[in-house]
Amino acid sequence: MNTLTKDILNAAWYVVVFVLLQIVITFGVGIGIGLAEGLNFGTVAEKLAHGTLSIGSTATIWTSAACSVLTIAIFAWRRWTPLSPTYLRTRPWGVLIWVALFTLGTLIPSEWLQEQLAFDMPEAMKRLFSDIMSRPASYLVIGILAPLAEEIVFRGAVLRTLLHLFHTRYHWVAIALSAIVFGLVHGNAAQFVHACLMGLALGWLYYRTDSLLPGLVLHWVNNSVAFVACNLMPAATDAKLIDIFQGKEETVWMALGFSLCIMLPALFQLAVRLKKAR
Question: What is the model's pTM?
């Protein structure tokens, strides 16, 4: 088997392992809950296959935690993602601060773009998402475990492998492919757009630093802000920007402009600082 074929198969395998872990653990928990409720195995399996058996928000949180922990353990054990403190030893505190500011600047523009594309989550998923976000224990998954597991898989394993397939001049092809795959595994059109855009930024940070650390900061800030916003403003979870800003369209445009005034200078600073770091 030549190197090219091996790298393609490896990249695909990493995604398959990630998805299979989600499916197997979710089905296992669902079967356990269904049997505990007195349903027979066949009925439980059928309901799970058709998505009509809800395992509840609490079970979903701990299922997601188990998936993330197992993913991290397997990828570390198999050494599919090299983990090294080399970049941290450079003390990149300035870069990490700019990454955090860049992330904050992307939130409103990303939401605005999603609204223009009119992609919506299924109602059942919206309700489950809101219920999960309202529970303090979910931050363990949303803010810490999920970002770590996803960065290990999609940047540390998938993107790293894809970068071997393309000449340095075409690194954006590898970054774009990994971003699309990252969007697709989220499983719905509403999250696909935001995850793809995030994937492009995360991939660029990984390419420029050869480290998961900047991407982890971006992922952590993005998820943490979403968690805090859902808990401070529960009604805003399903609201559009125009509703959040009390029906004032000019305020929406001001918020977009203010966000760009944070995002673009931060992006410029990162481009300068990461060029020196690589």
Answer: 0.91
Q: Give first-to-last CA distance, the chain, whole Å.
A: 32
Q: What is the DSSP string of 53-76?
A: ----HHHHHHHHHHHHHHHHHHHH
pLDDT in tens, 61-107: 889 999 999 999 999 999 999 988 999 999 999 999 999 999 999 99
Q: Are 30 and 44 in contact (CB under 8 A)?
A: yes
Task: Specify the DSSP class assigned to residue 188.
Answer: S
Tokens of 40: 């027979």
Maximum Cα–Cα distance across the chain = 62
pLDDT tens-digit map of 190-230: 788 889 999 999 999 999 999 999 999 999 999 999 899 88
Task: Indicate the residue type of 34.
Answer: G
CA distance 178 to 171: 11
- Asked if 260 contacts 109 with a C-beta cutoff of 8 angstroms, the reply is yes
Task: Considering only CA atoms, give the Rg of the chain.
Answer: 20
One-letter amino acid for residue 39 of the chain: L
Q: Where are the alpha helices (DSSP H) in the chain?
A: 3-36, 41-49, 57-77, 93-117, 123-133, 138-139, 146-153, 160-165, 171-184, 189-209, 213-232, 241-244, 249-277
> How far is 204 from 199, CA to CA, in rounded Å?
8
